[in-house]
């Protein structure tokens, strides 16, 4: 199985996950194996090159997510899978900040915010079928927090009846489907 990791990261703290790894950075600090510098709006790969693609914690940084997902659809093999994750806008920390400060401060580099309904709708319009979704506690993002915070958050998520409140990230797996041309 040939996997592409889009937004593989190029810092020492990042973990590249793919057989092929792509990021915007031209001169990475930490160059993953099989690294390509490139833009998601014009992927430097042939049609149907990959069996799976990871797109983790990236879509919120993309100016034109529809164009980007169309490119991902193009390079993904038929019935191939895409894994997408994005910060969860219904996480209890975000809701608490919204309640206390009457506004929600997004991260400076984030262009958009995706809930489950919006992300599912976008994926479907591009030609993907959502096969699984969940709200997760992302260990990659949490590894630089205090250990007590990590364990408390993981415990809260494990016992929670509503993962939409305790999950730090929204995680979606979708399958490439055949596009139906509209007349």
What does this structure look like?
The protein is α/β, with parallel strands linked by helices and 183 residues long. The protein has one domain (3-176): Vaccinia Virus protein VP39 (Rossmann fold, 3-Layer(aba) Sandwich). 29% of the residues lie in helices and 26% in strands. A seven-stranded mixed β-sheet has the order 3-2-1-4-5-7-6. Helix 1 (65-75) links the parallel strand 4 and strand 5. The mean pLDDT is 82.
Following the backbone from N to C, one meets helices and strands in this order, namely EEEEHEHHEHHHE
What's the total helix number? 6
Largest sheet: 7 strands, mixed
Shape assignment: globular
> Which superfamily, in CATH terms, is the homologous superfamily?
Vaccinia Virus protein VP39
Strand order across the biggest sheet?
3-2-1-4-5-7-6
User: What is the CATH class designation?
Assistant: Alpha Beta
Radius of gyration: 17 Å
Number of strands: 7
User: Do you know the CATH architecture?
Assistant: 3-Layer(aba) Sandwich
Question: Helix fraction?
Answer: 25-40%
What is the CATH T-level topology? Rossmann fold
- The total number of structural domains is 1
Keywords:
single chain; 183 residues; alpha/beta; Rossmann fold; seven-stranded mixed β-sheet; 6 helices; 7 strands; 29% helix
């Amino acid at each position: 199985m040939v996997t592409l990791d889009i937004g593989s990261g190029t810092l020492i703290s990042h973990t590249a996950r793919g057989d092929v790894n792509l990021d915007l950075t031209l001169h990475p600090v930490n160059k993953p194996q099989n690294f390509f510098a490139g833009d998601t709006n014009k992927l430097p790969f042939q049609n149907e090159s990959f069996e799976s693609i990871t797109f983790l914690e990236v879509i919120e940084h993309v100016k034109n997510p529809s164009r980007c997902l169309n490119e991902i659809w193009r390079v993904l093999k038929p019935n191939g899978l895409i894994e997408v994750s994005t910060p969860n806008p219904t996480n209890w920390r975000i809701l608490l900040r919204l309640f206390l400060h009457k506004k929600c401060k997004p991260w400076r580099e984030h262009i958009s915010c995706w809930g489950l309904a919006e992300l599912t709708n976008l994926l479907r319009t591009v030609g993907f079928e959502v096969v699984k979704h969940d709200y997760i506690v992302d260990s990659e993002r949490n590894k630089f927090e205090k250990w007590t915070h990590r364990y408390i958050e993981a415990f809260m998520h494990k016992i929670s009846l509503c993962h939409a409140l305790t999950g730090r990230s929204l995680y979606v797996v979708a399958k490439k489907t055949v596009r139906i041309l509209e007349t």
